[in-house]
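Hi Y.,

Following your request, here is the sequence exactly as I used it, all 270 residues.
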Amino acid sequence: GGSRGTLRKPRSTGRTCKLHTERTQPWNMMIKHRQIQRRGRRSHMSVSYTDPQVSMDLLRAVLQPSFNDDIMAVFKKYHKFLEKAAENVKENVGQEVPTDQLIKETCRSVLEHVSDIITVTSSLLIHIYICVCVCVCARRVKPRSEPIRREGPKWDPSRLSENSTFVLGSRANKALGMGGTRGRIYIKHADLFKYAADAKDKQWLAERHHMRATGGKMAYLLIEQDIQDLSSSDEYRECPELKMDELKPFSVPDWMVEKMQRAMEAQRDA
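Below is the corresponding structure, written out as C-alpha cells. Let me know if you'd prefer a different format.
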C-alpha cells in the first residue's frame, strides 16, 4: 500500500543506515533519481545521486539500446562495401586472409575515428547541461549582480494598448535561437517586460489557439516590439539560428491589457 519507489527495511535487522550527502552543487538541485522512505514513527530517509557521472551513466543505460540499434543500422548500411573490399584483399593477398576479422577491425577503427565528433558532441552536451544548471540556480539563488534596470519608455504602461501585439515567451525564446534552453530569454534579457498569464488569461489564449492548455504551468507573454528590437540588434542580427517566423504575434482584449499595465507598473516600481 506504499507509494511507488518505497522500500521497507526488513524487521529482522535493526541496523540504521546513515547517508552522507555531498556539499550542494548545481547538479544536486536537478538530479534526484530515487527516494527511499520509511513509514511509521521512524524518520524519513532519502537517497539522492549527487555524482554527475553516475547521473549521466544512468541516462546512458536507458539510451544504450537505441544507440546500439542506430550504430548497427549504420554498419549494416556499409557492410556490403566492407565485405567486397575484404574479398578483394583476399583475392590479391591469398586464401589465408580472414575476411571476417578484417571487417571487424575496420569497424572498430571507424568507431575510434569517430572520437573527435564525440568529443565535440560531448562538449555541446556539457554546455547545455551547464545552461540548465544556471537556469535552476537563477530560480533559487538571488543574483548578486547589479539591479535590473526597469526604466525608460519601454517600461511606460501607457505604451500598452488594444493595438499592441504580444508573443508567448516560449516562442520568443525559439525565435531568437535559444530554443535548446527553455526560459533562457528571461535570464539573458531580464530587463524585458514579461507578463505571467493567470488562469483566466490562459483559458482565453487556449480557446483562440494561441497556446496549448498548460494546466498549472507558467505562461509568459512578451511584447512583440521588444523582441523585434532585439532581433535587429548587433547581438542577433547575424545570428543563423534566428527564426522570427516562430513569433506568431496576437492582440489581447482590453481587460487583459489593463492587467498587463498594472503588472508593468508593479515590476517597474519594485
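The two ends are 49 Å apart (CA to CA).

Thanks again,
Q.
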